[in-house]
């Protein structure tokens, strides 16, 4: 068996959970402080819970720090909103710029719903993205806190290109690739690369269909 196969089958999940446990313990003080800030800033729960697509067509609920008002449409990506600034809270704006809103996904990794690196979990109703990913085998692994597509453009990428990059990752999973992805993600977060709040330009979204809006 190839080294990459051993890593994917036996070591990746173990390392993901171990690092998530260490990260949760080390960042517990920050999680508490951010929770207090969210509570004081706007009415509503501290955490945001949303249905996402998981491995092999399963579903799970992702955890994030709440960054938007409680009257925001629950199942629509922020980059599809016409004017997201109307919905993002003051603390939420900081959390989204720094990607700190993603920290609660450490709990998803501990539960086994997610990995540190993998295709980012699509909304359950992002059918066009899920169909494209299926063509590249990208739905066959646990979704990740970060992914190969995230370090190559994030929200800037059209759906087909995202799916291609996710598929490339799935067929080349190895420890070196995961470490590279984590390292480059840290750099992208610091530079705030590829983040778009609001509807993308038509040419960037070519081939993408609007997500079904089902309400809160």
TrEMBL record:
Record-linked InterPro entries: Bact_transf (IPR003362)
Keyword flag 4Fe-4S: no
Pfam hit, one: Bac_transf
Family of this protein: Belongs to the bacterial sugar transferase family.
A GO molecular-function descriptor: phosphotransferase activity, for other substituted phosphate groups
Annotated protein name in UniProt: Putative colanic biosynthesis UDP-glucose lipid carrier transferase
Bacterial sugar transferase domain ranges (all copies): 12-190
Transmembrane segments: 18-40
Swiss-Prot/TrEMBL keywords: Membrane, Transferase, Transmembrane, Transmembrane helix
Domain of life the protein comes from: Bacteria
